[in-house]
Write a structure and sequence with these properties.
The complex is a heterodimer of chains A (about 525) and B (about 300).
Chain A: E1 4-12, H1 18-28, H2 34-43, H3 58-65, E2 72-77, E3 81-89, H4 95-102, E4 107-113, H5 120-131, E5 136-142, H6 151-165, E6 172-177, H7 201-207, H8 213-216, E7 221-222, E8 225-229, E9 233-239, E10 244-246, E11 250-254, E12 258-267, E13 270-272, E14 274-276, E15 280-285, E16 296-299, E17 307-316, E18 327-332, E19 335-348, E20 355-356, E21 366-377, E22 390-394, E23 401-409, H9 424-431, E24 436-440, H10 445-454, E25 459-461, H11 465-473, E26 477-481, H12 498-510
Parallel strand pairs in A: 1-3, 1-4, 4-5, 5-6, 24-26, 25-26
Antiparallel strand pairs in A: 2-3, 7-16, 8-9, 9-15, 10-14, 11-12, 11-16, 12-13, 12-15, 17-21, 17-23, 18-19, 18-22, 19-20, 19-21, 22-23
Chain B: H1 6-24, E1 28-31, H2 36-49, E2 58-61, H3 68-81, E3 85-88, H4 91-95, H5 104-124, E4 128-130, E5 147-150, E6 178-181, H6 189-199, E7 210-217, E8 220-223, E9 238-244, E10 254-257, H7 263-272, H8 290-297
The chains are: A alpha+beta (about 525), B alpha/beta (about 300).
The structure holds guanosine-5'-diphosphate.
Guanosine-5'-diphosphate (GDP) binds near residues 16, 17, 19, 142 and 181 of chain A.
Amino acid sequence: MDVDLLRFVVVGSVDDGKSTLIGRLLYEAQALHDDHLSQVKRASKQGGPIDFSLFTDGLKAEREQGITIDVAYRHFATARRRFIVADTPGHVQYTRNMATGASTADVGVILVDARLGVLPQTRRHASLAALLGIPHLAVVINKMDLAAFAEPIYRTFEKELIDFTAKLGFYRVTFFPVSATQGDNVVEKSARTPWFEGKPLLEFLETVEIARPQEAAPLRLPVQTVIRSGLDFRGFAGAIASGSLRVGQQVAVLPSGKKSKVTAIDAAGHQVMEATTPRSVTVQLADQVDVSRGDVLVPLESPTPLSRRLDAMLVWMDETPLDPSREYLVKHTTRTATGRIARVQWKTNHETLEQVPAERLELNDIGRVTLECPRGLLADRYAQNRATGAFIVIDPLSRATAAAGMVVELDAAPQGEQLRPITADEREARLGHRALALSVPPAIAPWLERELFDRGLNVVSVASLAAALACERAGLIALWPTPEPVPAIPAIDAKASRDEALGLVLKLLAAPRKA
Amino acid sequence: MSVASHLELLEAEAIHIIREVAAEFANPVMLYSIGKDSQAMVRLAQKAFAPAKLPFPLLHIDTTWKFREMYAFRDRFTAEQGLELKVHRNLEALQKGINPFDHGSQQYTHALKTQGLLQALAQGQYDAAFGGARRDEEKSRAKERIFSFRDRFGQWDPKRQRPELWNLYNAKIAKGESIRAFPLSNWTELDVWEYLEREKVPVVPLYFSAVRPVVVRDGQLIMVDDERMRLAPGEQVQQRKVRFRTLGCYPLSGAIESSATSLREIIDELKSSRHSERQGRLIDHDEEGSMELKKREGYF
Ligand SMILES: Nc1nc2c(ncn2[C@@H]2O[C@H](COP(=O)(O)OP(=O)(O)O)[C@@H](O)[C@H]2O)c(=O)[nH]1
């Protein structure tokens, strides 16, 4: 019973026949149960044929009620393969959903209505599938029954899309003349399209070679967690993002660069000599090297450098637009780092797919940006590695997933470039309040420090003017307890009550910082 | 290079999810319902952290109406495997006498399962709870996330669910909020059985066919598991060869007639059967979209 697993995403505009096609695949693969089937038969028109679209009506009902328009995942299996289908609504505003479904897909199935032909959204869907790195594109020219199964119509659309997708970098693009309602070329080859030389869609999905470029890529094992047991056992656990790992292999731990040798690999409870992506493993090393979550094991021969500045394509997914002045969280493999999207280089016009200048990205925009991560990411280009080239952007305030990112260029800035100095504004944005140094009467200093701290402010008592100024530069609120104030920094009067002192500090914090 | 089978891929994905949750959350817990999905999930968690013990406890929400064999199995299995088990009951509801006979399955489920779960999660201050739900189980689950966000009241707001791309899960939550994590999201019922067989994981014997005392009620075969079972006038206890596809509270679990007595036979039977497993769960029949509603209230 060893079959493999294929993930595909189905995209189409409303009414192209997506629900019908998926429903028919599930039906033909006998993935539907009798109780579900009889429900649908009852709901289909009296005495008429089965309405296959009703099998996947979950999303439709929502669309009508105006609630969650989302990705739904369905499962079916044939004797040859297990399938996971991502069903995504195909409106312009639903770029987000398609990107989600496409991110893990091996095949993208795109529907074209034979009466309408190739529309702007068809090109948009194909481009997005390419952007997310789906290796295979399958184009279903649907409703061929309404086009008299005419070959010339099919060929016209085929030609148009072959030309369009030629530049997009798919491994292969395959076409199917289909009637989803009547079943032509879905499971069985249709007698009504004798001119069609290809396989029916299901057979294609069953036999298409799953391109797993990740397997041939160099080893990347991002550490999820360190497992300790007894006195001696220390294992580094993670899912192999790319490549494979052997017992005896020399590895480097990044970012520290420490070297060691693999002494044992546990793959889901089995001791193995070798393991390949995407297995989850626990690795033991020969030396007591320091490894923690977010570190990556790589082959000794080809260590990757940390990238602090990189170019990426972003799909913006949040209602709140991108703000280049803000700090975001970037989750990349098992590491979450802070970063800024310093610049939007351009975005894609939804209709023409042309690159247009843009200051920011809004919901469902796709654009190229420069990302700055001060602590660096161990990234690869997405085109070379779908696992280590991908990241998500999290809004630190709302905690929403704001964007999906794909690395295009590493270290976009030339080496040795002047780093942008950190400004007081940046520190203020990070800490949530302005910096301040002030002298306070020693009697109330401990109380004031506690009071400010409990209000969530970053405050510290220091022993000298120099220390106060240093802490202020670091963005903190520095209290210098002294009976003898100096003119260099504001002071709280010795006679002030606790409340007066607190009031003064809060007033100073509310006032804009002098340049 | 050998191609990984679908079970190996699903296993690798589930272990990755379990490790992400354990690494990113301060206080996770694994919901343990004693059913086949829980058995698979616990085995995956053991593999994720071997040779160390699970870094989180198991939590059983006990309605007091589970099958006797389930309780016996739970205690034996967790003791043998050295698993930390916490059991929570909604004592308030039990004191009020809420039961599956007098209160209807909706009210009963809400009080003893949904409320019981929310109480236990709040008391334990858990910020993440693993559940064994699968997307193939029911229509409204098909779009469920792997990390499903719950507000401060444990409730599911469809508008606040986050897009999930690749295997990058956003684990940031505010204080008081929590997530439910579903490592078996992409598994089917068949996958679970095949995995349990491959891994030789024990399951409650009720999954295997045996002659059991049952009554026919609303077209379902309900087992008479203990003396609390109330018989309606005219109901006759019969001895039939039955087994269960899903296990829950015995008065609400429908049995199927079957002769499958091993995992292999269950798998063969499943492959030729055309009924969804939820048919045996009375709680889903209450109303259309009932699962969606329960989820919003905080049910798994
Ligand atoms: N004649 C014909 N109608 C189709 C075909 N596929 C879908 N339809 C019809 O097109 C309409 C929209 O189909 P549906 O599957 O709901 O589209 P979706 O919005 O893309 O999910 C329905 O009335 C279908 O019956 C086809 O191959 N031929």
